User: Fold these one by one.
Assistant:
Number 1:
Amino acid sequence: MADVLTSEQILEAAQDVLRRYGPAKATVVDVARALGVSHGSVYRHFPSKAALREAVTRRWLDRAHAPVTQAAKVPGPASTRLRHWLSTLFDAKRHKALDDPELFATYSVLVGETSGVVAEHVAHLVAEIAGILRDGIAAGEFAGTDVDLTARAVFDATGRFHDPAYSADWSGPGIDDAFEAVCTLVLNGLAAQESHVPQAGAEVVQPH
Amino acid sequence: MADVLTSEQILEAAQDVLRRYGPAKATVVDVARALGVSHGSVYRHFPSKAALREAVTRRWLDRAHAPVTQAAKVPGPASTRLRHWLSTLFDAKRHKALDDPELFATYSVLVGETSGVVAEHVAHLVAEIAGILRDGIAAGEFAGTDVDLTARAVFDATGRFHDPAYSADWSGPGIDDAFEAVCTLVLNGLAAQESHVPQAGAEVVQPH
């Protein structure tokens, strides 16, 4: 097996080892043993234990995220697409957390120690939101705004429904209503100024 | 001292002990020793170690929250009051976290183990938001809506700026801009429907 060893095989084995032994105990030697290769063979693909753990985490985040990227591509108005994107993200995270809580807990530890990987992942998600916002602004559906800042605000405002810190809430009663209420608030917020601005004389209460 | 021992004195001493020894090690005997009384004197006020820790946590949350309750009472339109309430909450939490990180870490542990106290505290905060929303709806400033659900949505949407899970972000660059962006999104979201609804023929994009 050693001469055809791929990075993908190593990452798959590393995930199994991390789940079985826990992130605190799993070593590169354990991964090599599981594959029946020397630890040198693993190090040829990943120069350090930290690099291997980062690669495992990146792969997990990318995979969890694949259906979300697809969700941005559905046809229809930007508000429909954004709502679909947000609910797909929530569903993907919720399934990960509830279907395999042990693996989810393992990755929660890894995510906590690989902040660079997570920052990259979040930037990628925020960029997808920004893409939908730009389409919505171009279509006159969303208000013109600082797109990158607003995209991050959408991500922040929906954090209870994608940040693993809240995973204990995701099976609770009322969570779907809570999600819908936040989505509605956010989508109204994106549209609001657009509907105000062109209507001279509309009653808008402003602090004076 | 024992014959004039008050609950308040015990709670003050318990906070000191928790900070000094850490939540994992602090005991009722430590608290009694710090006060120069028997542990029986402490138990006359608080029937168990858990009850004492809950009372300490409740006191801390209530105190952190006092300026926030005041913020709901400022004069002006509901949107100004809500923004002021949210920024006062963020400031209060941020000061707690940054001014005395050791005590904040201690309380983060306590908050994690006293879920009933925290749920009560959150319900109280959400009720204050709901009060501002009702005033705004009565004044025609905010859209009519399910007030309790929407108040919770406002609380959830601003979680990055009050949930201790995010305290590591609160000293980062850009956090104030991020806060303003979420506030603007939320306040636009509250006003949006009100401006749409009475205007027949206004262009509202809905999924069909």
Number 2:
Amino acid sequence: MRTLTTIEEMRAFVRDARSQGKSIGFVPTMGALHAGHLSLIRRAKEKSDVVVVSIFVNPTQFGPSEDLEAYPRDMAADQQKCRDEQVDAIFAPAVNEMYPQENLTWVNVESLTDKLCGRSRPGHFRGVTTVCTKLFNIVQPDYAFFGQKDGQQAIVIKRMVADLNMPLQIVVCDTVREPDGLAMSSRNKYLTPEQRQDAPLIYKSLAAARDAVDQGERSTEKVKQTIQSVLAESQEIEPEYINIVDLDTLSELPQIQGKALIAIAAKLGTARLIDNIIVDANTQK
Amino acid sequence: MRTLTTIEEMRAFVRDARSQGKSIGFVPTMGALHAGHLSLIRRAKEKSDVVVVSIFVNPTQFGPSEDLEAYPRDMAADQQKCRDEQVDAIFAPAVNEMYPQENLTWVNVESLTDKLCGRSRPGHFRGVTTVCTKLFNIVQPDYAFFGQKDGQQAIVIKRMVADLNMPLQIVVCDTVREPDGLAMSSRNKYLTPEQRQDAPLIYKSLAAARDAVDQGERSTEKVKQTIQSVLAESQEIEPEYINIVDLDTLSELPQIQGKALIAIAAKLGTARLIDNIIVDANTQK
């Protein structure tokens, strides 16, 4: 496995793979790899001949009061995990390599990015879509792999790829969870032991919402109340939003008909955690 | 020569060329091809194995009061010109093929697009950069060719390609002029015979500006006065802007030191014409 730090090296690696007729799978990450990332890598290994993992804590997707400095970084551990998964190359550029001059060009997906996390994180998705465009242009993958945990991000990226005719396919992989249901996240490291004990309530509340929908509840207000009552079991959890939205537009739904995304963001101490599930009112158990 | 109208056909054509190890040169146009476009095509033929010309009057770069409907279209004549130049493929998609659903994703180059033509054409460059991104993603060229006549556009596109690490090289080709100096433009068709007689004053004023700089004039105010006095020879010409700007930032310069872009936009009846030259205070005649 090679660790490449310059765009030029990365392009040469890709040219070489292409000239051998190999397909390229790409897993963009901010490092601090956990089992969720590893599931993306495994899916990439299945679908493509060569797998590239990028490790880049992208400054343009962090707001001024967010955790850019604190964000966990552990390149040696990440390299070992990638080696174990038989990743072909890590792309780990410095910030100056990715942003050598003032960045004037931004890719923005309107409307979808104003909702859910976009409300409290202005500019976040613009940073994500811009850096993904840059990385896609450097790695030129056939497939790029994203986790359903960042559900809004997956929908935004898929829309960007469609609108801009980007020559790759986005593959969204199921959320990987701890045995107690907590969605894997690099930000789980911020939790104190007490907060960690309460954190699974987020998924527990989503599971309760799914049960309610499966039992015929169609009112989003009622489903939200179910979620709120579960989250209220912890005094540490401060919900930022609980939204039940259309999967294409991310607009809030008054009633659940067909598929819907139920998404939560909550503060737990210094950690801001997100999780979501997709429910389908047409396939009751 | 093939004329392709779907993205799928275009992608298949590109895949085929690539699999034969051929380089691809791309000339994006809005059709109504004139000698300026043909010079881009010839440059593309020199530099690349396969040449693709797109013909697409892109609605997203026209303002609501602009000439989208009136813009000249003549596919049969354009095809004949491309055939004569041994173009390999024309990509001529319908609007629905390029924008099959509401376009939510925009590529925007900040700052550079607020200046010069950006002042009177809000949203124009956002439309240009977005459609060029789409076309680049579809055609996946090694080189794309733009004319210096649209000087701000060339600078904006080059910055976009650099900022977003797009895997292609932008080649900017000299402005092609009528024997009397008028820059070739599809919009010259809007001119009445009388306006056509006055139109060369735009380039004449730029040539006078170059002479002044060559003779040591460094004050942009003085150079602008020279331009204005030439343009005033016609009562039909209404200047929209006369700007002397930095080649990288497009910011207005108080003094000419080193290279500068001298750019003019002017109305002549219903036609809005633009032209520009690059001067260099360090290489006096």
